[in-house]
Write a structure and sequence with these properties.
The protein is an alpha/beta fold. It has helices at 5-17, 31-35, 49-54, 58-63, 80-88, 109-113, 137-143, 147-150, 155-176, 183-195, 203-210, 214-226, 255-262, 267-271, 276-291, 333-342; strands at residues 20-24, 42-45, 67-72, 95-101, 119-123, 199-200, 230-233, 249-252, 296-301, 307-314, 317-323, 346-351, 357-358, 363-367. The chain has 2 domains: 5-123, Rossmann fold, CATH 3.40.50; 134-373, no CATH class. α5 (80-88) links the parallel β3 (67-72) and β4 (95-101).
Length: 378
């Protein structure tokens, strides 16, 4: 088992601060395993029928417990949110609640609305490169971060797990969240999205290809976003007298799921595929965003061709990132335009090599393994 001390520390701190802590993330990313490392007075798994029956009178049952109470897969019983609000508002409340869910606060509306001011959210994802040996980065990129995929004994077992995950997600998980979407159409949409990974969202084009309306495919996109399968990276707008792109860029968040959707089983398949650069870009962006906490992130592009893969606003300064799947990347005119127009403090070009070097005082080339430490100072 791979240790996850950063998440564990954040979880313990949140439980000290807040009466309710929500640990959210996709299924099978390790939420339950992490929660088991927290000493608990009682645990309820809402995928278990006996546990659901134990909570038929939830206010009486939960109200009698002192200490930490863990409730797993809480989206299966959304009525519990109102019960938790009542319990945590009691004078000298003796309990702390750790709730686990497989959808974002926008989907689990009860958590964000009913428990407003009482809940702290922590988002858990699969393994990131800070939790792994540097030698495992290529394996992490190919297989993704889901524990059972990354730790599989072979690439064949890893791809089999990911295919099963995709099928179960489409046929069971989406329905359990209350969405009535046809799994075959959703699979086709998800696959089409994989082929547009790293591109700006064009709902009209996808809708025409599927024979569906813009509104319908937008709904599909929002479901995948709300269940942590897709990231919509929003554009940055600046008053610089240039026509700027206003649609979000769309990424499959887990690189292993992306590769499964594209039919890329082995490293040689990935390296020979036209989407290898886009895959590297999405992989790098996820690693940065997981390690920068509340930093504001976006991308920037103009209709004239200038663009920046990732714009980070951190402690009052702006930093840029470009991702190049190249052995020795160099700067470009587009990067210079971004530096000047956006007033960047520094721009880093992230590549799959091992050595760091400077192009000039404002642009540096860095290995992906160094990126999480660039702005955190760790």
């Amino acid at each position: 088992m791979i240790s996850r001390p950063g998440y564990l520390e954040a979880l313990r701190a949140a439980l000290e601060r807040s009466p309710v802590t929500a640990l959210l993330g996709p299924r099978q990313c390790g939420k339950t395993t992490l929660a088991r490392m927290i000493p608990a007075s009682a645990t309820f798994d809402l995928e278990s029928l006996p546990d659901r029956r134990r909570l038929e009178n939830p206010e009486m049952v939960l109200g009698s417990i002192e200490g930490t109470v863990v409730i797993d897969e809480i989206q299966r019983m959304p009525t519990l949110f109102e019960v938790l609000r009542v319990l945590v508002d009691r004078p000298a409340n003796p309990a702390r609640f750790l709730i686990l869910g497989s959808a974002s606060p926008d989907v689990i509306r009860g958590a964000s609305e009913t428990l407003a001011g009482r809940v702290e959210f922590i988002e858990l994802a699969g393994f990131d490169i800070t939790e792994l040996d540097d030698r495992d980065v290529d394996k992490r990129w190919l297989r993704g971060g889901f524990p059972r995929s990354f730790l599989a004994e072979s690439d064949e077992n890893s791809i089999a797990w990911r295919e099963g995950f995709i099928r179960t997600f489409l046929e069971r998980d989406i329905a359990e969240l209350g969405f009535t979407l046809p799994s075959a159409a959703m699979r086709r949409f998800w696959t089409m999205l994989a082929h547009q990974h790293g591109q700006t969202w064009n709902g009209s084009q996808i809708g025409r290809s599927m024979g569906l309306s813009d509104k319908t495919v937008r709904g599909y996109l929002d479901v995948l976003t709300g269940t942590f399968m897709v990231r919509q990276l929003q554009p940055w707008h600046e008053n610089i007298r240039k026509r700027q792109v206003k649609a979000p860029k769309v990424y499959i968040r887990d690189s292993g799921i992306l590769h499964a959707l594209l039919g890329l089983d082995l490293e040689e398949d990935l390296l020979a595929h036209p989407k290898v650069g886009a895959s590297w870009e999405g992989f790098g962006i996820e690693q940065i965003l997981r390690n920068l906490g509340r930093a504001q992130a976006s991308f920037w592009a103009t209709h004239g061709g200038a663009e920046l893969d990732l714009l980070i606003q951190h402690r009052g300064k702006r930093y840029g990132f470009e991702f190049k799947f190249s052995e020795a990347p160099t700067s470009s005119k587009s990067m210079r335009v971004a530096l000047d127009d956006l007033g960047l403090e520094h721009l880093w070009i992230v590549y799959p090599g091992k050595n760091r070097y400077s192009i000039d005082h404002a642009i540096s080339v860095v290995p992906l393994t160094e990126v999480p430490r660039l702005l955190t100072g760790s």
